[in-house]
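#data-curation
PF: Archiving a pair of folding outputs for the training set. Convention for this channel: one message per protein, sequence first, structure tokens after, nothing in between. First:
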Amino acid sequence: MNPLSHQPSATLHFLAESEGTLADFLKSQLEITEPALDQLFLLGSIFINKNRVFSNQMLQAHDYVRIHSFPKRYPVRNVDWCSTIHFESESFLVINKPAGIPVHATLDNSIENVAYQLSQTLGYPLYVTQRLDVPVSGLLLLAKTLNFQSEFNRFLRQKKVTKHYKALTHNEPRHGLHTHYMEKSPWAPKVLSLEPSPNHLECQLEILQTTPLGELFESEIHLITGRTHQIRSQLSFLGCPILGDCTYGGEVGPFNSKKIALHSTFLSFKDFKFISVPNWTEG
């Protein structure tokens, strides 16, 4: 049986019994072609003793090998990365992140992400300071130096960074401050509660205004805390799931799981202010 053909999302685990090359070991364990193996090396989908490897190398007896045999792929080749740059200074740049691409490396794919692709395009390293979910678009700041990365992270902790988003929903959310409590879990969808508890994280956002757009509502949202999936889960909890966000009960419409109707529209800190207008027609 070919494990790769019968486990389309498989993460496979092995222990090497003796010395030898990684490539020979994997070929002995799996029905895998040389080009397929080269692709997995390129993407960083193979680990030895929990360390990512990008090329064939020697294995020792009892080495632990993990292979993500079907890494998730992202459409990075469809993006003109230079055109995403909204602003650039000596210490950071702000881009309009395209939907459908992660900000940073994932466990099974280390190169098809915003930070890597822009670093390769510009010829210097970039450092992640904030995150947007894969299907979310809009303003994203990346540091050009480790010092600025630390400085911006401090601004975030001190709540000296203001972030606004716009979202499309079929139902109109109630204006004002909304506080919920998110269960600590790595899984999605996130589970919210109205009551605090030791195993929950506080989530706060403010619906600033809502504009009718035909049968939809466009809401401007001030994100106060920054939890994973926070806006998506809170709007869903309010009975207003975001268009396209099937994970949280949103209808697909012109959007889908690769791009939901959530866009980072405003980012400010110190004397800097950046604005991006969503183009919902590209959903």
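PF: Second:
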Amino acid sequence: MNPLARLVVVLGPTASGKSALGIWLAQRLDGEIVVCDSTQVYRHFDIGTAKVPLAERQEIPHHLVDLVEPDEVFTAGDYRRHAVPVLEEIRRRGKVPILTAGTGLYLRALLEGLADAPARSEELRKRLRKTAGERGPAHLHRILARLDSATSGRIAPRDTQKVIRALEMRLLTGRPVGEIHRQGRAPLEGFEVRKIGLLPPRRALYEKIDHRVLHMLSAGWAEEVRELAARFAADAKPFEFIGYPELRAYLEGHISLETATQQIQQATRRFAKRQITWFRREPRVHWLEGFGDEPEICAGALQYLQKTVP
């Protein structure tokens, strides 16, 4: 029997320093980064999705970034199908894959497998999209809350694509989405998984989020949005990501830049709170109460891995 290969997972809310810690660990463990983020799989949307610039990657390879065009659909199942062969290739070369995970559903799909969910129904999706167009995305989210409150609590009201998929699964099977996901999974095999969770103090995290939004704006985020809006259809999935609707509203003259900034900061703080709630349910996580770029947190992470991973 072949020995299990190492797989390190660094998880936590946005702005907690996952990327910094992942790179730091990769330098010391002869590792490569595998990004687990539902926004960074899309090409061209760079600043607003907080992709690590090439110049800051310290020559560490980063995988599963820029996989698809903005008009393509990408799911948790697609992520798993891309990720598994990447992990196998990294293992084959004798390197350590270090997964930086901000999207809990993608992480779960990779580690635990996917349920035998029903196939898409374009007819049902068309009806649901029509309803969303006529009555607004929040109306669909309220329907989902009545039919499957647990699932609705994990999906943002404006994430129409996820709401429609959840409603589709609920209506086609008659079962809650959580029940479907718990059945028929094939977990990832061949890897010894160790998870490190970053959990900075809440006030400090929110301050970091607010400052990071300002930094992203100073780096040209609004200009990025202007260029993307001229190139891609308004209903492309990445335009739903935090910050892009707000900056489009600013560029179209509907709100001021100050208002857009405040809305982005607030939405990001709320998103971080949802991430923390999700990751708190993740089993066997070694939690570190700080940011991933703090020396003592880096040292604590490495010490944990050296004790528990051969």
